[in-house]
Every structure is written in C-alpha cells, then in structure tokens.
Description:
- This protein is α/β, with parallel strands linked by helices.
- Helix content is 42%, strand content 15%.
- It has an 8-stranded parallel barrel with strand order 1-2-3-4-5-6-7-8, surrounded by 6 helices.
- Helix 1 packs parallel to helix 10 (237-246), helix 5 packs across helix 7 (139-154) and helix 9 (213-220) runs parallel beside helix 10.
- The longest helix has 19 residues, at 179-197.
Amino acid sequence: MTARRKLVVGNWKMHGSRTANAELLRGIVAAEPFAAEMAVCAPFPYLADVAAAAAGKAIAYGAQDCSAHEQGAYTGEVSAAMLADLGCRFVIVGHSERRALHRESDGLVAEKAKAALAHGLVPIVCVGETLLQREHAQTEIVVQRQLAAVLALLGERACEIVVAYEPVWAIGTGRTATPEQAQAVHGVLRAQLQSATGHGAQMRILYGGSVKPDNAATLFAQLDIDGGLIGGAALKAADFVAIGRAAG
Ligand code: PGA
C-alpha cells in the first residue's frame, strides 16, 4: 500500500476580483480542516491577496503558469522566482489552454517545470488528449509523449512533480471522463512515472475536466487518481469544499 495524500487544486483561470476572491477564500478556509491537501491557483495579480488570506491556514496556493526564463527582458512574463517570493507552493504548467492558445510545446512545458523546481515550487504538469486524438486511439501516445518530455529534462528530480491528466474534451464541457476512462490513463501514466523515476507509487496524478461535487468521489476512488484539478467548480466555495471533502 502507498500513502499518497489526496490533493485538490482549484484552477481559477482568468476569473475573479479582489472582492470575489476574498469571499471565495473565506468560504474555503472556514471549512478547514480537510483530510486532503487543498490549494488554489490564482491569477498573478491576486497572489499577494491570496497569500494574505492563506496566512496561518492550511490552504496552499500557486500560479497558473510561469516563465521558463530566470529573469530578464521578457515583457509580460512572470518568473518562478517571483512566485516563490510570494510564497507559492504550486505552479500549473502545460495546461491545455496554454498549449492550444499560446502554442506551448512539450519542450517549453518541460523548461517551465524545470524552472519551477529550481525555485522550490511543485510543478503541476498537465497532459491530455483532444477528442480527435481519442477517437483515433492516440490517447496513450499523446499523454506519454507530453509527459516524457518533462521526465527527460528533469532527470532525477522528475519524482518531485505532480501530474494532472486533463482530457481536453472534458475541460469546461460538463463532459467528464468516466472513472474507468480516467483510471485507464492514470494507470498508464503511473507506469511511465515508475519506469522513469522508480518512485511512481509515491507520485500524485490528479484528474481534471468537469469535476463536480456529484462526480468527484467516484473519480477519486479510482486506484490511481490522487485528487483533482478543478476549474469551474473551484469558483464556488461550497462546490470546492464539497470536492475537497470527497477527496478525504
Ligand atoms: P473544468 O476545468 O473543471 O472547468 O473542466 C479544469 C481545468 O481546466 O483545469
């Protein structure tokens, strides 16, 4: 048996305001303690507010992206060092929206994960296939290729990442992968983590894509699903809390 503590991470995407965030965080911390580890990934401008609201609480926080570069003339980018300076624990890298809308390559995602680790952040590395790729039976090939790029670049430190399997067709669509579909991919990813790092049994693999209070428990009950990366349902305290409880 392994003791992987469940992890539930809210991905706020480009939503929120100082007022709305404060209310959301109040609702989450009021529900502490959780058996699962809980975290929120907020837009950059709100991280300092989130840090203040999370001070002395169990909830961790992070960002939704970081630069692959250390520092310098990269207008608009935010470095991993800056995120660490703000007390972030996590940073999402390689979300499918960034891969699709900002043409982030597997190689760039790997560089971002490396920058995150170099500054003591835990990268949450997202992988996932499109509907077309699933229909063409490419799911395993795609997610293994995406993950392999990160594992290869990180080498011995690869065991420190968190992986998030997010089928693109399930994100924001209300169309969740069935627990069996998700577990099948998680099993493949775990085997890949094991063969690359030798620590696959200790590493956490989150599921993301239309996780809601009413489907979370069944998903989290799967052998290789160690929690969730939550988009829409992370914007309502009651829903996020319910999903957190489902992981406990
Ligand atoms: P969703 O988003 O829960 O709204 O589907 C998940 C994600 O994109 O991380």
